[in-house]
Design a protein that fits this description.
Elements lengths: L9 E4 L2 E4 L24 E5 L21 E2 L5 E5 L2 E6 L4 E10 L41 E5 L3 H4 L4 H6 L6 E5 H5 L1 H12 L5 E9 L1 E2 L5 E2 L5 E2 L3 E8 L4 E8 L17 H8 L1 E2 L6 H4 L14
Antiparallel strand pairs: 1-2, 1-11, 3-15, 4-16, 5-6, 6-7, 7-10, 8-9, 10-14, 12-13, 14-15
Length: 301
């Protein structure tokens, strides 16, 4: 499988490079040619049935009912926080994955966190991103980047004020293109929360994707921050059991929300491109299965 607009894309991470291979489900998404989208704009999504793993192998953490994400990157550092975990790469200065859960609670009515973004106190200035690294990232013409949350403020405040505050640690942040962050990705986060309804829970694993053989833009005052080529998100829910897996190229400036359900691949395909085993205890047969429907649309769409 390739990301359209990135011919021959391979996942690039220290200690691990996976070659993207053709996916037999890709023929299901050929309708892209009929859409008025930029050539680089692709959204890949899939829904499939999920069952709980056997009790003997079930993860004990409430954040990882199907097991914590796994990676071949031995330098990855798992940072545990109130409300979310992060698989942080000191080589990339961003987290390759962030896992969180969302259940609607009275704290959802809290206002946005009033504080600022901070360095992660568990990392030194060389191995962890600093506030100064994100200077000169944003531009008034919106062609720059925002400090984009992976575990978003709106979801973390449901876990309480401490979780909301720690979501502003820079190990939960990536340089995310402004129009992308405030457009399609914001809408996706809203739909993710809405999918939980008033009483259900959704489990989310999200992160950036970097392609080998493609130039990686580095931004910020120090030039240390890499801008990813794509983002992935895998969302699991029960009652009824479902999983959605998405892969969205980061070159997208404005992607119409109604195109979201038009591109389907398996969870397994997303894992190959992300270089991760997102849900280790999810049966392989279910990771390859596609079963719509799409969960909904954000307000005004």
């Amino acid at each position: 499988m390739e990301l359209r607009g990135y011919p021959g894309c391979r996942v690039r991470y220290p200690h691990r490079v996976l070659t993207a291979t053709p996916c037999r489900l890709f023929s299901a998404v050929r309708t892209i040619a009929a859409l008025s989208l930029p050539a680089a704009c692709v959204l890949l999504a899939v829904a499939c049935t999920v069952h709980r793993p056997p009790a003997a192998s079930r993860a004990t953490s409430s954040l990882h009912p199907w097991g914590a994400p796994r990676s071949g990157d031995r330098r990855l550092v798992v940072l545990r926080n109130p409300g979310y975990d992060a698989g942080y790469s000191p080589d990339l200065l961003v987290s390759r994955w962030v896992a969180y859960r969302y259940t609607r609670t009275p704290d959802c009515s809290l206002p946005r966190y009033p504080g600022d973004f901070t360095a992660d106190p568990r990392l030194d200035t060389l191995s962890g991103p600093q506030p100064g690294d994100y200077r000169k990232v944003w531009t008034e013409d919106m062609n720059g980047c925002d400090r984009g949350h992976q575990a978003p403020d709106a979801a973390m405040k449901a876990a309480g004020p401490e979780a909301q505050a720690t979501s502003y640690r820079l190990t939960n942040i990536t340089p995310q293109r402004s129009r992308f962050n405030r457009g399609f990705w914001r809408d996706l986060e809203w739909v993710t929360r809405g999918w939980a309804g008033d009483s259900d829970t959704v489990w989310v694993v999200t992160g950036p994707v970097f392609c080998a053989g493609q130039e990686t833009l580095r931004v910020g005052a120090t030039g240390r921050l890499p801008v990813s080529h794509a983002y992935f998100e895998v969302v699991a829910r029960r009652r009824p059991d479902r999983v959605l897996a998405l892969l969205v190229p980061h070159r997208v400036a404005e992607l119409p929300w109604d195109s979201a359900p038009s591109f389907a691949v398996s969870v397994d395909s997303v894992e190959r491109l992300a270089g991760l085993d997102v849900f280790p205890f999810l049966p392989e047969s279910l990771e390859r299965r596609a079963a719509p429907p799409w969960p909904g649309a954000p307000p005004g769409r």
